[in-house]
Each structure stands twice: as structure tokens, then as C-alpha cells.
Amino acid sequence: MFSWKGGACRKKIREFLEYIVSLENLSVVSTSIEDELEILSVMKETGLDFDDSMQYYVSAQKGCKGIVTFDRDFEKAGIATLRPEEVL
Fold first, then answer.
1. Smallest Cα–Cα separation from 50: which of 73, 68, 26?
2. How far apart are the C-alpha atoms of 48 and 75, rounded to whole Å?
3. CA–CA distance, 17 with 72 (Å, rounded to integer)
4. What is the 8-class DSSP label of residue 65?
5. Positive or negative: CA dihedral 43, 83, 87, 77
6. Whether pLDDT at 5 is above 80
7. CB-based contact 80:69 (threshold 8 Å)
8. Could you tell me if residue 10 is inside a domain?
9. Interacting residues of 54 by C-beta distance below 8 A, sequence separation 6+
10. Which residues make beta-bridge pairs with 81?
11. pLDDT beyond 60 at 59
């Protein structure tokens, strides 16, 4: 079990976030309230939960060809998926 208060856990989180920040081809995307209203429509259309619908919506808005994920739910939404080991 994780202890979010533990120093070792904070260190691992810091290392992970520093790694994410170091990635040159990664961009962080924010959504607006208007986007999130659209995401609710995506939920209804695809049957995905809110988090998956947000990823689906943002990837479509950014012109992505697919999503890298372990989550098989995206397959039912009709978006191309790749498993992480396929792109590493």
C-alpha cells in the first residue's frame, strides 16, 4: 500500500514529475468548462468514463492518430490504441 505522506513516496513522485517535465515532445493540455461540456457528449457517444472521454476528446482536438494506453476501453470508442510496449 502507498503512503502519500512518506518521504520515499514523495521522492518517487518528484522523480516521475521531473522526468515528465524533461520530455521534449510532451505538452500538457488544459481543458475549459466548454471543453468539459463537450466531453460529457463524448461520454454519451462512446460509453467511456469521464477521464477516458477527456483523453479521447483532447487527442481528437490535437489531431492525434491514436492513444497509447493499457486501457482496452478505448477500443470500443473507435480510436486507435497502442500498448506502451509497442511504442518503446
1. 73
2. 10
3. 25
4. S
5. negative
6. no
7. no
8. no
9. 31, 36, 39
10. 67
11. yes
State the residue range of the domain holding 69.
Answer: 27-87
What lies within 8 Å, CB to CB, of 71 at 6+ separation is 52, 81
C-alpha cell at 6: 512518506
Cell of 20: 515528465
Does residue 18 sit within a domain? Answer: no
- Residue of higher predicted confidence among 48 and 84: 48
Cβ(39)–Cβ(54) under 8 Å? Answer: yes
Residue 4 lies in a domain: no
Q: Given the C-alpha cell 515532445, which residue does it identify?
A: 25
Using one digit for the tens of pLDDT, what is the confidence trace for 9-45? 888 888 888 888 898 888 888 999 999 999 999 999 9
Whether 20 is covered by a domain: the verdict is: no
Domains identified in the chain, total number: 1
Give the C-alpha distances (Å, rounded to integers) separating 86 from 59, 70, 81: 18, 11, 10
CA atoms of 76 and 6, how far apart (whole Å): 39
